[in-house]
Amino acid sequence: xxxxxxxxxxxxxxxxxxxxxxxxxxxxxxxxxxxxxxxxxxxxxxxxxxxxxxxxxxxxxxxxxxxxxxxxxxxxxxxxxxxxxxxxxxxxxxxxxxxxxxxxxxxxxxxxxxxxxxxxxxxxxxxxxxxxxxxx
Length: 136
Ligand SMILES: [Zn+2]
Ligand SMILES: [Zn+2]
What we know:
- By secondary structure, the chain is mostly beta strands.
- Helices cover 5% and strands 34% of the residues.
- It has 1 helix and 10 strands; from the N terminus they run E-E-E-H-E-E-E-E-E-E-E.
- It has one helix at 29-35; strands at residues 2-6, 13-17, 24-26, 40-46, 51-53, 57-61, 70-74, 81-85, 94-98, 112-114.
- The strands form 2 sheets. Strands 6-7-8-9-4-3-10 form a 7-stranded mixed sheet.
- The longest helix has 7 residues, at 29-35.
- Residues 26, 28, 30-31, 40, 115 line the site of one zinc ion (ZN).
């Protein structure tokens, strides 16, 4: 499936081909800190189809929960998280794109949850939390 999207300010755009069935949630503590929220939703995009316009800022996290260094890309203007990949120059084999920036996010339902051991305990109880259609 074709996916495309942009950061909050529109400075960076992303596009590529992705398998919706590979959409997943990550509950690792790195994702919690990097997003400022409880978990991250991502989808893999092969390097052969991945295109980015603009110049993302890359932060290399050398002590990721997984033990592998990861390049975390975000917009230098608005700070939106964009994707992670293997560190290095030029195109990489795989990009893990943040679903929240994609126009197709309605069609990208997570199929698995990883790093469940550090999931916030309340994520299973969202149904029971009071809901407002808008802010008030
Ligand atoms: Zn931006
Ligand atoms: Zn994670």
